Structure formats: structure tokens, C-alpha cells
Amino acid sequence: MNFVRQVHRLSTIAQRTPMAGTRAAKPLIHIDVTSDTVCPWCFVGKRNLEKAMDASRDKYNFEVKWHPFLLNPNADTKGVGKLEYYKEKFGKERAAAIIENMTKVFQELGLNFSIGGLTGSTLDSHRLIALAGRQGYDKQNALVEELFCNYFTQEKYIGDRQVLLEAAAKVQIDGAEAWLNDSNAGIDEIQHDLEQYAKGVSGVPYFLISGQQRLSGAQPPASFLKAFELASST
């Protein structure tokens, strides 16, 4: 075999032989989460989702986007006492049972569930989440985490402008003050998301996995793992 033919043969073999260590690209799992920032089960669902994601990052890449849901669209922007609101909405006995249960659930996640502070309108928090989404899903997810922690574990009112600005600064959201000062900023996005993702949803959290698998409520990590598997195989 002459030299030219030998080089051509070796080149052909090299082209057909995969390089050592190369792997097929991992499937991308896109997750749309419909949630309200004052919903305790939404926080629980977020943590369970993240447990499932952490357990399967060797198999999949993930992209999580948050969408608004307004549990109380007519809530007072000034805020009312959280405990009093629970009692008024659920009744004294049921409110006590809910608080006891949520305290246990949060403890299992290593979190403190606080019933102190104010609750009220979540519209501005969703407007801020919309801004964060424009700057990247990772920033958006970090902001959602910060708002949940503020509201449920630190007794901060997430309808308060200063609380929102501090949360935005902590996760490095640009332009938050100007955005919040413009009462129309983000409204169109919120309305679009409410129509596209919240329509027909009776309760949150609600998860849409790669546009195929649907999960409602604070599902355990195993349910998400199964949904990832099904979504990646179709």
C-alpha cells in the first residue's frame, strides 16, 4: 500500500471512530411552573423539583421558567396580618391545622415556617419575576427562591417595595426600581402568562414538563423523576 493510500485509509478510520470520552448531548427538560409567591405548597414544590433535578443532572439539562398565578387577585396592596387572614379565610380551627401541618412540612425541608408578618397583593412580585425572566432563567429562579424565603421564613411582606428591591439587589436584577415604579411594566407579560399557563388551572403549584407531562401540587421528587423520563423518551 503506497503512502497516499495509507494516509487516506487512516483518515477515513479516524472519521468513523468516535473520540474517547465523547457522549451524546443530554436532553433538555424545559419546566414551566405556574405559582403564586404566597403559596406555601409552591415553595415546597420548588424544593422537591430541585431535589429531582439535582438527582438527575447526569442525565438531563434543565431550564425552569416561572409563570404567575393570583390566588387573591383583589388582595389589598397595603397588606393584612397573615395569621388573621388565615383565620378569616379558613376559620380558626382549620387555620390552626393548616399552620401545624405546614410547620412540619417545612421542617422536613430544613425550613422555618413563619405565620407572622403581612400578606396581600402579589402583583408587584410577579412583575419583578417577569423582569428577572428577561435577564435569564437562573436569575428568575434565584429571585423566586429569595421571595419565598422572605415571605415564609423571615416574615417579610413581598408587597412592600423595599423588600422587593432588596431581593432584586441580592440576586443582581438590573433596573428593578425603574421597573417597579412603572405600574404598567410587566403587566402585558403577566396577562399573557395568565391566559396561556394559568387558564384552567384550579390550584398551584402546577408544572408542565417539556410541554407534555403535567403535575399538579407539591409532588414528591419521585414524581418529577418519572415525568423527566417520560418527557425525554417522546
Question: Could you explain the architecture of this structure?
Answer:
It holds the Pfam family DSBA. This is DSBA-like thioredoxin domain-containing protein. InterPro entries: DSBA-like_thioredoxin_dom, Thioredoxin-like_sf. There is one protein chain. The chain is α+β, with helices and mostly antiparallel strands and 234 residues long. The chain has a domain of 55 residues. It contains ten helices and six strands, in the order H-E-H-E-E-H-H-E-H-H-H-H-H-E-E-H. It has a four-stranded mixed sheet. It has a two-stranded antiparallel sheet with strand order 3-4. Helix 2 packs across helix 10 and helix 5 packs antiparallel against helix 6. The longest helix is centred in the middle third of the chain and has 17 residues. The protein starts with a helix and ends with a helix. The relative contact order is 0.17. The N terminus is likely disordered.
